[in-house]
Amino acid sequence: MISSINMSIRVLVVSDTRSSGDAKDTAGPKLMEKLHVLFPYAEVACNTIPDDKAEIKSYLQKYAKQDIDVVFTTGGTGFSPRDVTPEATREVIEKEAPGLATAMMFRSLAKTEMAMLSRAVCGVASKTLIVNLPGSPKGALECLDFIKEAIPHAVNCINDRKEEVAREHITISQQPVAQPQEQSSASKEAREDVTISQQPGAQLQEQSSPSRVKVNKVAARNRESPYPMVEEKDASDVIIKHCMPIHETDTVPFEESFGRVLAENVCTPEPIPAFRASIKDGYAVKSADGMGKRTVKQKAIAGDKPIEDELQHGEAVRISTGAPVPPGADAVVQVEDTKLLQASEDGSEEIAIEILKEPKAGQDIRDIGSEVAKDSVVLHKYDRIDAAHIGIMAQLGKLEVKVVRRPAVGILSTGNEIKEPWERIQPGQIRDSNRYTLKHMLRKFGFHSMDCGIVKDDPNVVKQALEKAFEQNEYVITTGGASMGEFDVVKRVLEVDFDARIHFGRVNMKPGKPTSFATLVYKGKLKKVFCLPGNPASCSVCCLLFVIPALRYVENQRDYKFPMIRADVPEKVPNSDARPDYRRVTVEAKDGIISAYSNGNQISSNLNSVCNANGLAIIQPQSTIPQRPIHSPFGTTYVSEVPLEQVIVLFDNIYEY
Ligand SMILES: Nc1nc2c(c(=O)[nH]1)N[C@H]1C(S)=C(S)[C@@H](COP(=O)(O)OP(=O)(O)OC[C@H]3O[C@@H](n4cnc5c(N)ncnc54)[C@H](O)[C@@H]3O)O[C@H]1N2
Ligand code: MOO
Ligand SMILES: [Mg+2]
């Protein structure tokens, strides 16, 4: 059963080794993934803490205070001395829910006798249901499966939602009681498929039947959008809430990791530098000898075998930058601070020199490990791999590296009038630019995409194309057909045929008003859909504002949001629309002042306004800008203050050039 109730869920991984990083946590990510599928409308997050009773209690109490609906703990329910999750839970809950623990125990016993060693406690603290799950990923997933049907009902009961509870009583009484015996994992999967395919949308998907959306007789169409208008920031937040960071990794040759996100800490097995290295071309000396004459004994050239002989008082070794400093020397004096006293007859060797400046101990020597100590983390998990990271991997001889798997994204164009660039077009038709712009925007930010083609504004073909897109992609971007026309069918197909939830269907911005975001479950997997407007400038702006940050977040990039700065907008063209205007601009920094210049005609259809743009200037509607009174002998008039500074979203960092 896929639940449609809104819930906030937390997974609390309780484990000393997983919280210290000594062991990899797989239970948390797996539970999150399963919860997203079971409860697609829930907001799910995860924390990892040690097996510490006080800390467990403090997390559970915090969640209860925040009115989190359900907390699933995983770990710490066994018999070892540090296992204290049930004890902590018992001290936090006000009502115990032994039925949940019994159901898990009873059904687990059918799989393994070891289940009798579980000490799980379940109960309610304030309005939060707390469920102890086992620590093993397999056990945790199985136990979640055993009680999943009861969770939404429990949440509705806790919140005293009488109508929902009554409705659920009817539904539950019509369901057969599940039999715990002989459940091989294959039969369990099959059962899940059946349950999912009983969803109206999913059943249609299986058989690829026609869409249930009928294009209305035009007179019957909506005259008002059914979707409330949301602010851009709220829309961005909703998207992030429903996108889950990826935990799977790929192992790639180090040079192919450029632009990807590291999925492991990279340690240096050797200190850097690995030997005391000279910073200058000059002479290695004993600083205690001070200024004055030195006999030049040997030479140390970078790449040569290090000198083993101890340097003696009054001696110097001629040394080049990067060469190992000989034992006994504690300073390097650059050649500029010396004078030649004596050379060999043919001039090929120096015999004696004079040090002209008092040398200090440690001068111009890079000590062993002074840049990076042995065994320390040099590249950090979730760093975005840049050129220097590649260089460091080369330096360490790290030939392969683990990176975060990239999300699978499909791009689908819709519109009766849309043709491929190479096709002959008839009057009234246009060539598809959106699919190509989107593909290359994604590429610029390091993401691959699957081309899902162009479809007509016909619910049947839109449905079929979406099914194909969902087969292979976790994220699907559609363009066109998102607004108020009777042939704008994308959102209706998603809702009716796929049982999708449209989290928002309109955004208060120009361009980009019809932008929408939906989630749905297709064949047991959660899919995320960005419906972008057909207008090419709107489509690009919304890809930058909504899609790229979401994909960066999913790839675990720390800096997934584009930076925002304040800047001068010298061309003071007010925004006469009621929506904030996201103008395509070229941002320049000159003499310490950052200015943003408009990229020409800002109409939503003009893709040219996006060419060369490296930022978006957010210009608030003129109507919201304060009025300034101007007093004169003829009376007072009011003029709008045009703000000198506007917020700029930078999608190319101008400082990188
Ligand atoms: N009654 C209303 N009409 C419109 C509203 C509204 O609120 N009420 N919103 C307008 C806004 S704002 C936008 S933006 C557009 C968005 O429309 P759709 O997403 O439904 O897109 P289409 O109608 O399919 O196409 C709009 C426009 O874009 C061209 N287009 C479409 N796909 C492509 C493509 N792949 N490559 C290039 N150009 C494309 C299409 O030919 C149209 O000219 O709706 C307003 N209407
Ligand atoms: O929002 Mo639309 O993109 O203004 O033209
Ligand atoms: Mg339209």
From TrEMBL:
Residue stretches making up the MoaB/Mog domain: 10-154, 410-553
Pathway(s) where this gene product acts: Cofactor biosynthesis; molybdopterin biosynthesis
Segments of skewed composition (Polar residues): 172-187, 195-211
Stretches assigned to coiled coil: none
Cofactor(s) needed for function: Mg(2+)
Substrates-to-products reaction catalysed: adenylyl-molybdopterin + molybdate = Mo-molybdopterin + AMP + H(+); molybdopterin + ATP + H(+) = adenylyl-molybdopterin + diphosphate
Key word Signal present: no
GO biological process terms, semicolon-separated: establishment of synaptic specificity at neuromuscular junction; gamma-aminobutyric acid receptor clustering; glycine receptor clustering; Mo-molybdopterin cofactor biosynthetic process; postsynaptic neurotransmitter receptor diffusion trapping
One GO location term (cellular component): postsynaptic specialization membrane
Gene3D superfamilies: MoaB/Mog-like domain, MoeA, C-terminal, domain IV, Molybdopterin biosynthesis moea protein, domain 2, Molybdopterin biosynthesis moea protein, domain 3
Chain intervals for the UniProt region annotation (Disordered): 172-220
Known function: Catalyzes two steps in the biosynthesis of the molybdenum cofactor. In the first step, molybdopterin is adenylated. Subsequently, molybdate is inserted into adenylated molybdopterin and AMP is released.
Name of the protein: MoaB/Mog domain-containing protein
Organism, scientific name: Callosobruchus maculatus
